[in-house]
Amino acid sequence: MSAADLLEQGRQLLDAGAGNEAMACFRQALEQGESAEGWLLLAEAQIEAGLTGQAHVSIASGLNLDGDAVDLHYLLGDLYLAENKNAEALATYRKIIELEPREADAWVSLAMAYVNVDDLDAAAECGNKALEIDPESTFALSALGDIHAALGAADQAIRYLEQALALEPDNPQPYFSLADIYYDKDDLPQAEKLCLQGLELDPGTASGYLLLGHICLDQDRIQESVDNYRQFLRLETSPAAKQIRDEVAAVIEGLR
Q: Residue 255's pLDDT band (boundaries 50, 70, 90)?
């Protein structure tokens, strides 16, 4: 089987949830001939399997072959962001913009990295730049919604998020962001409605169950709250979420 066939087979296996088999295909393809694409696919599979250390090695190998491979830089930036290595994430997204100045998604990713370091003004500036490049970018609109929510500009945040949903009604993330805003406004029925809409589109979103747990708890629906918190704990396994996981586990224990 050719390297191209092995990469395609690996993609199909990865899409089917067979990560180990996919990684085996990608490694076989790379043995036949290294390529930036092969290292990218292997790194994606490794990240999905939680093998982030190995993913860093694969990304570095791919960038050694093609230092201008934007997809590899994106993957590296997203990995840094997930690891809370914010300085590294900022530098990586800036590298993408250096390579492709009108890459709207890179501006949005840079905005998210600025959010992580609490530089909301810089985040908003980057989000606006992305929207200038692509006025119909739901990624940019959603990010600007989250940024303005963090800035305390709830009405502006709602407008951005509603624009995102108008363009892409099947995107679950704006529903969760809107639910957060309405929760903060103490509009629990609207927050719950939006949260459930998001979970209907993506039942695997851990943060949705966390918010739903809070909503139910605030309405003294104790068992529903516990059930949602438990679902959050089942889905949220990131080491970066240890503190919130511990807090939720303590709340569940206190509600028994």
A: confident
Q: Taking a C-beta distance cutoff of 8 angstroms, is the pair 170, 201 a contact?
A: yes
* 101, 107, 109, 111: CA torsion to nearest 10: 140
Q: Is 8 exposed, middle or buried (0-12, 13-18, 19+ CB in 10 A)?
A: middle
Could you tell me how far CA 137 lies from the centroid of its own chain?
16
Average pLDDT over residues 59-64: 96
215: helix, coil or strand?
helix
Average model confidence (pLDDT) across the chain: 95
Q: Which of 68, 93, 78, 24 is nearest to 47 (CA)?
A: 78
Query: For residue 146, which of 104, 101, 115, 192 has the smallest C-alpha distance?
Result: 115
Question: According to the model, what pLDDT value does residue 110 have?
Answer: 97
CA nearest to 206, candidates 173, 163, 178, 174: 173
